[in-house]
Specification:
Layout lengths: L2 H31 L6 H21 L2 H31 L1
Helix pairs in contact: 1-2, 2-3
C-alpha cells in the first residue's frame, strides 16, 4: 500500500470518526435536556465529518458514496442555517 493510499485511509477513518461523534453528542445532549434534542455541535460534526467523507469518496471515485455524502452535506448545511436563523431571531426579540 502506497503512502498516498495510507494518507487517504487515515482521512477516511478520521471523517468517519468525526461523523460518528454526532450520535454521541445528540444522545448526551438529549439526556441533559431530558428530551430529544440536537445540539449545535451535532450539525458542526455532521458538516465536518460529511465533508471529509465526501473528499474520501471523491478520492475513491465511488459514485454511490459521493451522492450520499453530498446530499447529506446539503441537508446538514441547511439545518445549521435554520438553527442560526432561529438563534438570531430569539436574540432580536429578547
Amino acid at each position: 500500500m502506497g503512502t498516498l493510499n495510507i494518507v487517504w485511509l487515515i482521512i477516511g477513518f478520521s471523517g468517519q470518526a468525526i461523523f460518528s461523534t454526532r450520535f454521541l453528542l445528540q444522545w448526551l445532549y438529549s439526556e441533559y435536556k431530558r428530551r430529544s434534542a440536537f445540539p449545535m455541535a451535532f450539525w458542526y460534526a455532521s458538516i465536518v465529518g460529511g465533508a471529509i467523507l465526501l473528499a474520501y469518496a471523491i478520492y475513491e471515485r465511488d459514485p454511490v458514496f459521493i451522492v450520499g455524502q453530498a446530499g447529506g452535506l446539503l441537508i446538514y448545511l441547511r439545518n445549521l442555517q435554520l438553527r442560526l436563523r432561529e438563534r438570531r431571531s430569539r436574540t432580536e426579540t429578547d
